[in-house]
## 1
Amino acid sequence: MQEKENRIVVEHVYKTFNVYLDKANSIKEKLLFWKRNRKETREVLKDINLTIKNGEAVALIGVNGSGKSTLLKLMTKIIYPNKGKITTNGKLTSLLELGAGFHPDFSGRENIYFNASIFGLTKKEIDKRLDKIIEFSELGAYIDNPVRTYSSGMYMRLAFSVAINVDAEILLVDEILSVGDQHFQEKCINKMKELKKEGKTMVFVTHSLQSARELCDRAVWLNKGVIQMDGKTDEVIDEYIKQTT
Amino acid sequence: MSIFKRLYQYRELLKTSIKKDIGGKYKNSFLGVIWSFINPLLQITVYAIVFPLIMRNNIENYTVFMVCGLIPWTFFSSVVNRTSFVMVENGNIIKKVYFPREILPISLVTSEAITFIISTIIIIGFVLAFGVGITWLIVFYPLLLLAEYVLLIGISLIVSSVTVYFRDLQHFIGVFLQLLFYGTPIVYSLDFIPEHLRWIFKLNPMTYIIQGFRDIFYYHQVPQVKEILMVIVVGIILTIVGYGIFNKLQKRFAEEL
């Protein structure tokens, strides 16, 4: 078989966070209390190596605080590693938190433009996708109402519809499918299966082992900032359940 | 990836944030865009009454003289002021989505530049009302606008990124701007300053810009093009240095906000 293209390469990545116990975020305090700037460094990720190839769907699993979300944020370039290198290849969309960047006073339609432009789309590209996005969100006539009048389910539907229709080669998703009703959840999972078939690369952070099994062919188990296991979804999840329960 | 390529790719975001900034400012206010005229007009009225009272001067058409300096100054000071808040205000998006962070200061400067172009109507209104008139010299307007724009891009890259780490810089900037208002020949002429002190004022790039606007609207003389080109060079240097600083600091924005 032909060697597949690498989409995400994580090499020897370390990430530490500074935890300020009392945050001296001003010149005054830095001058007055320069000795007293108590901070702790917390190592969140230690020497992570990971290569994700084109067309793979990877689930990141692990208990709370194991560094899954941090790894995902590093991949999106919201934060940067202290040591090591992350290279991504291809257009990337992330769904870390739904509707980040929605403006409550603007209508759903205006927010589609704003949100999609944050993902780097041009007006023409958005125009082309607009109908598809509105249709997928099932918002119908509500699309012209201000977003602040939306229920959290509607909010989530709109955000998800935008992100999934950006046509990115890489989709990063943080635990979000828990919102929305059964019907929409199924719709999302089906849509993601479809994207997978089209050869998109996906990385999920999830606690729902069921949907991980359903969608992903590979799972990476993070434990206390290191990769505990990396392999076929079923094998990793079985081992994970054995050790954590 | 070069900054220009990235900005071009994200041009839609740049455009929508500029529109959001200009439109959003007046969206919920009764008088709407009229506010962008009322505010400076009130300020002009106050200064036109106060300064001739406390300062003896023989400047002809003092109000016009002052307006020509005040409007460009307002552009400068509102950018410098707002740019120190821009990252904190957008902290929510910065923490959750990736996009080129420099879009935020750049779109702020651009939207303020558009506001400035609109409020140039005020200068023209005063010039006509007081019978000073308009000449062909107005062709130098784009050059002066460019000089101030480039200068502000450089300053805003530095200020917006540094304030993320030092929040109280915002207060310093407020005081500094007030000081600079009196340190720039806006309500007075550079001729009032004793010869041996003038070099201090000549270190301030805003001095040249305001004198330039005054040359084309008030004195009707060709502005000192060489000096203005110098300001542009300074602005470009500031932008390059500022972009370096910005790029280094922006890596930890999401953690510091």
Note: The radius of gyration of chain A is 20 Å.
## 2
Amino acid sequence: MSEPKLLTAARHVVLLAFVAIALWPVLDVISISLRPGDQLRTAEWRLIPRDWTLDSYRELFTSQPFLRWLGNSLLVAAGVTATGVALASIGGYAFSRFRFVGRQAMMLSILTTQMFPATMLLLPLYIMIAKLGLVNTFLGLGIFYVSTALPFCIWQMKGFYDTIPRSLEEAARIDGCTPWQSFRRVILPLAVPGLVITALFSFMTAWSEYIVAAQILQDRDLFTLPLGLKSFQASMSTQWGLYAAASILVSVPVVVVFVLLSRYLVSGMTLGSVKE
Amino acid sequence: MRTRRRNAVTVHLLVAAALLALSGCGERDSRRVINLWHQMRPEDRAVLAERIEVFERDHPGVAVRALYKETEELRSGLVSAVLADKGPEVIYGPSDVVGVYQAMGALADMSAWFTSAEEKAFDPRAVVRLPDRTDPARKDLVFLGDRFGNHLALVYNRRLIPRPPATTAELVELAKANTVDENGDGQSDRYGLVWNYTEPFFVIPFLTGYGAWIFEDEATTRREGRRDPQPTLDTPEAIAAYRFVAALRNEHRVLPRSADYETATALFRAGKAAMIIDGDWSWQNYLTTPGLDAAVALLPTVAETGLPMAPMVAPKGYSLTSFATGEQADEAMELILFLTGEETQRAFLAQQRILPSRLALRDDPLVTDDPVMALSVEQAERGRAMPTTVAMRAVWDAMRPPYQLMMAGQLDAAEASARMQHDALARIETITGQTTPDGSAFVVYALAAGALAALLAFLRRHFRAFGVDWRRNRLAYVLVLPSIVLIFLTVLYPLAYNIVLSFSNMSLTNLRDWEIVGLRNYASIATGGESQVFWQIFVKTLFWTAINVFFHVTIGVLLAVTLNGPVAGKSFYRVMLIIPWAVPAYITALTWRGMFDEQFGAVNQMIRGLSWMNGFLPDMLQLEPINWLGQATPAFAACIIANVWLGFPFMMVIALGGLQGIPAELYEAARIDRASRWQQFRMITLPMLKPVLVPAVTLGAVWTFNNLNVVWLVSNGGEPADQTHILVSYVYKAVFNLYQYGYGAALSMVLFFMLLTFSLLFLGKTRATEAVY
């Protein structure tokens, strides 16, 4: 399929313009993170500032518990991702393939949870977590993250299973598989792109959440990255250099994950795709 | 059969193991822990850590865990702590919030550990006693200050002002002489005086100079038999002060047209303002600004009254909380006395030039040999301590809008002060007033009973069906069970709690002993005093949602269609365009706030960089740097721009997925029929994308409607003057500013039903449900 040169050129113009817009704030943060301490607020913008320095990064690793926060974040995010994927993969399958009593009601109420202003849930949530003795534990935080990520993940997985023809399972059943085996051996391997998206979504939820973490984690050694970052800010004096450097380091893993998975991103996202 | 169940069980075990793995990090040492929540600047935290280390060395059985909490975080954290009965033993912060903490029952009386001999060593304004909650005749010692700060003084440019003014008459003369229009265009290029006149805090010295104060004195309160002091915002002295202030701008024209903190600072630093009124936190910056010869002076005396202008001073210090009991309280108290002790204060003074609360240290050479420190002490000693009453915040909130209108020349002084007083009284009534159950409480109980009965009937009917179904669909139930349990555990309980709260009178003073009062909260949303604001913000929220979703979808579809054609470097573009989605939103939202800064922000820098184009542009489209965050409409636009940027990649990915599902034969057929590209887009692409986009739009609208983060971070909690709120941020602020937890719960229920209705209608109307279910 060929098209006029002009149209191709137009495509590039549009794409390049939006790439510039997409990168602009990120470049701004990179620039701040490289500035020496006395130029943090400057009226003159350069990507690589004059007298650029890696001091902010150095300080992050030497005099701040950045690695510890990174470890905490990785642990929480990994736990949440594993749990979220496991639960959504089986839950979504049940919603896609079985017609059981309460299915509609459950699916609707899962969707409904997305409509409640989350900030209003904070207070009762904290009381509940405190009563369960889970304040200052990753378990308390993990439970909350899994349950916030799950509604989207379940819907997403259900949508993906809907695109896989039922005839595959029927064939497997004829070959003597139990329903569980046909799910485990036939359907699940086909659902990898959907699982990847679900994993990505769970990971993002845990990686970048801040408000709930601030309520539950009250020990600087247990901080996740967003909390650590936030502690560089104070009302009258923010350590912008540290903040910017840490922002970059926090974003890099997510961006890398996105880049690696971008192949799946389009094919795996099936929100509302037409089934069968 | 058996393997199937075993496998399902294995999955559950794995999940449980994963959750357990998360919990394996709670090991503690055997020392007793004292938790300290503090609000120290990053530079001060190093000193604090050093001193805590010394304390721990002297007390081997005790570990101190210090944790920085922002103002709002500390406050909401303490509310949660009171409700859960679990919290920090010691807190540190400015004194103006202790009234609130005392009212919610978070503080303990420290009198037993504090001798009167000890007390003599402190500046009396650093020792705060408040009436006991149960026995108001008794006074609790609730706050022990270790420092003073936040006092304003006059900073002047020595090149323009050889000698600082001693009286306000001299101030006006000097200011007039230094307000100059250099290029004769009718607008001043240099101003005599500037300060941040968006915040009423900066007008306090004028009030005190004219003999006014924002609250009545203690004697009047006692005489009138009131529990808390009344605000006095419309006294003749206050009106005189406002008249003087407004005249500076509107009559003498020595002030710039508008100035928030950033503008004021920037003007003075650039030499475009001869004098500035600013606080102790800022002086060092001015004195060390290259090319600026600045000096600090005491605020002048008011010519008419002969009174010196006295700023507010806020002590900062420690409070013991009610969570500390027994031996732990003793140790926590030892910590407080150690941290307010002479050694610690000297360390802060020596390392961070902090004004100590111990009188003995005021004669230390560290203070007397440093002219700025010495002046700081003198100005602080003239200052009046920041009130600690619960009403303080209500007074600030009430003063702000009329003060801003007065400074804009839209209200005269008398009218503005009358409005302040009226609004302050109304707000204080809201905070401290107690509502009692009325007739509608029975309606609530009846409704609850009805709902419960309906639920039981519903369950009973379905239970039977479930019993039959269980045998057939056992695997399905096993598979959904863990998700459902988890979601409902974390959402259902808070939701139920919130529903109950929405019928209650829970507020600051009865955090623990609130009761169901009926439908009042809902009634006041629809018809009450605040309802006008509510509907206004509701309309704004609809705009916010519609504009955002419109741009998300348009940009997303545009990019998807562009990417979907034969274009080189497709995967490169795709990765780059996903970046706004990949970078955590709280980082980019704050980055956008920085980029919208009027002077240093990248957006205005670009506008300045493009100003060469002005010669080619019509008058309407001239590129001028915009004061983004200082005015209501640009600030709201800034929030929208940031949110559009954040949201378009999601829609692009969705649309890309949808485009790949459109069979190529359709386009081929269209080409044979000689349909133009636009026709192909209209007739094939859009209709085929619809089933994918409709649920995405629904979800996007719900997310946008409920998006607190972006508005909150970009506009810094609704600035300027609470004009950039959408409903969620308004609820958040209303609840936490006025402590109306019942009202806030009702508001969030209303939001919830709005979204629910919208989603059902939208999905139903577009028949997308067929595809989603």
Note: The first strand of chain B starts at residue 32 and ends at 38.
